[in-house]
Design goal:
189 residues, Thiol Ester Dehydrase, Chain A, Thioesterase domain-containing protein, alpha+beta, 4 helices, PTE-AB_protein, globular, Thioestr_dom, 7-stranded antiparallel sheet, HotDog_dom_sf, two-stranded antiparallel sheet, 19% helix
Amino acid sequence: MIVKHPITSPLLSHPDYTPIETTSRQRLPTDENGFFAGTLATATTIPHVQTLTYNKLVPLASSGVELEVESAWRTPLEPPDILMLLSLATPGLSGHPGLAHGGLLATVIDEAMSLALEAHSQIVSSFFTAQLDVRYLAPVPVPSVAVVRAKVVSRAGRKNTVRAEILDNGRICVEALGVWIEKRQTHKI
């Protein structure tokens, strides 16, 4: 469904983007990723996901200066660090008939943001959502194919600010700003 869809087909063949593994779709022995890799990976929820990463991505260095919230909201998403293409099914994702549940849309944004952070990381690290401000601009229909765009807009020490949006047929339906904290690295003596 994703490959032959008129919205996603050009993205999949875009020369600036490369398909990558959607790591949050891998269920780990610790049950990490269980929600996105298990509960939301069924024929009636999100049967298909494809993630693309920007080929010219330059890892964002820590500036030491925290970006103000209003400036972060205005930071352009072009080019997005990550594109996540999702098949949204029904009835498993419905909040109201024919419309995706808002909590599910926040979850999808959270996943895309984590993949954008992962793309910027020089080392294997863990990030945790500290704050997620989601603005619902229009309903997202189900079933449908949605595109999530995510971009890391600033780093200040362990604090990362990420923007994302969900598009349906090119229209921005949901936008979000998240603050993510990188887990402290522990060193054995």
